[in-house]
Amino acid sequence: MSDDPLVIFTPSGKRGRFPVGTPVLTAARKLGVDLDSVCGGRGICSKCQITPSYGEFSKHGVTVEADALSEWNKVEARYDDKRGLKQGRRLGCQATVLKDVIIDVPAESQVHKQVVRKRAEVRDITLNPSTRLYYVDVQEPDMHDPSGDLERLHTALSQQWKLDDVQADLHILQIMQPILRKGNWKVTVAIHLGDSENKPRIMHIWPGFYDGTIYGVAVDLGSTTIAAHLCDLQTGDVIASSGVMNPQIRFGEDLMSRVSYSMMNDQGAEEMTLAVREGMCGLFTQLAAEAGIDKQLIVDAVFVCNPVMHHLFLGIDPFELGQAPFALATSNAMRLRADDLDLNIHQSARVYILPCIAGHVGADAAAVALSESPQTSDDLVLIVDVGTNAEILLGNREKVLACSSPTGPAFEGAQISSGQRAAPGAIERVEIDPVTKLPRFKVIGSDLWSTEEGFDAAIAQTGVTGICGSGIIEMVAEMRMHGIVDAPGLIGTAEQTGSTAVFADGRTNSYMVYDGTENGGPLITVTNRDIREIQMAKAALYSGARLLMDKFGVDKVDRVVLAGAFGAHISTKHAMVLGMIPDAPLDKVTSAGNAAGTGARIALLNSDARAEIEEIVRNIHKIETAIEPRFQEHFVNASAIPNAVEPFPILNSIVTLPTQTFNTGGGGEGGGGGRRRRRG
Predict the structure, then answer these.
(1) What is the pTM of this model?
(2) Number of domains, the chain
């Protein structure tokens, strides 16, 4: 192995070894990392800004020392003096590699911007916001009534709107008197109506009749992405939706890597808290700009997140979540203020964070339960929300069970040799010709297949850059369906598979998807290690679902709901061919889109839903996969494609999967197990 320093780029996960003195921009270009530059590396354009991460990263097996990159040079100093660099940033064309280093490429330095696929789903939501506008006529002061202006405002709210015991923060007192007089003693008041922990409180005040509106944000804070919806609190309309990569990715792509980082680095948890809050504030600025509103009009916010993100966002060290019994600091809902979390919206804005279900099943799963209501279902429904960590719910009117499963980031394109996040140019759909065994594909940003006329012109701006999560899932399923990958997950030789796209790659074989090297583009392949990464991810997902089915005493479910970006963009047939989900009729497998985000919107726009979800969570039965003996058994069986023992009769009635194996040891695919049928 080379002794050259190891360079790891996030969020792409691409890595390679480079000689000491290699500019970061050069390393990025050689690895195909999406790092912008238009000035030819002269330190003029500033588009190649990067953020090095320092400390111990157990997931990557590296410790990044403070002198991993060269010191600032005159070019960087001049640029910082004239235009300014954010703290911790370097110019990739100027910083050179001296030792092992992890480099984060921020969103603004990426040529092909991340596509955050968490849109606002169309949904009827009862409108009952926690903050409302009230127009009041306040009694003017006179020499015979010594009461203060605030007291007379209280009286007006009580008499005209039956709002009693309304509180006011100091900043209201500081602006109230001139506003009352400017409005000729008629004002519009935004009031948070209170909750189980807080009395009603004046949020803002305008002179006269305010004919505008106020806003709230519903935020799905995920391990990989942060998605938010800006909503009009008077109409319930979604005014703007946007998302960003979670800047914590540079500390580790999966949750346990971040817990490990906090354990092994002093101030590690504080670093990650600061990073996610800064990312959140940037997202709010982006939303407000998109909608053309003042951020100070955002007076309410609801957050959903997994337990580790919950703790890091709140500034709580996630240490206890990294070891049994995975104790949360609190599982209850949180009612806070924006300034408690350093958020750049209205200083008194109310923040509601949904309750967590268990140490590994968070507020995001609670939001999915609020959105999809398994507890009211007459049939047995399995709800799967797939991300870096999968949350799984199974239930009906009888009971609801919940667990999480550590799928890792492979479904999002990470840890895959040609993998990338969803962005223009990424392969997202795949088909393999049953005769030639050659692939064709679609990329994000074009509706044309790669074999169709006009494809090259349609992608001229982006090119073909890699494979995103939906693409790699369809790719592996197609390879299995057409006899290129066997059930244990081994890619056969060109002779065994009958495909000229297969080539020897060391001790195993790989499959050629796209060769753009003649035009300076990437070589995109699927390796046997890629297959293994997908097997591990899908086995973890299926094992969690199967474990809940065991606990429920069933061998099948009535319907499956796929939530998250995964559910909206993956073919259900390909998901079942992989064995990601239990065997079920394809018309009973549906997508709920971003159900966690929908649950957050429901809680934002209907304050009664907050008490409802707190009650629902109290009645959900939590299953901890880490201590369940059968989880490992299911995991081993589910490592096969689709499964070593489960028969999958419905799938087998739709597709016929090849039975040959490519291991020289021979053998078959594994027999089906005789399992009890679902009880009525």
Answers:
(1) 0.78
(2) 5
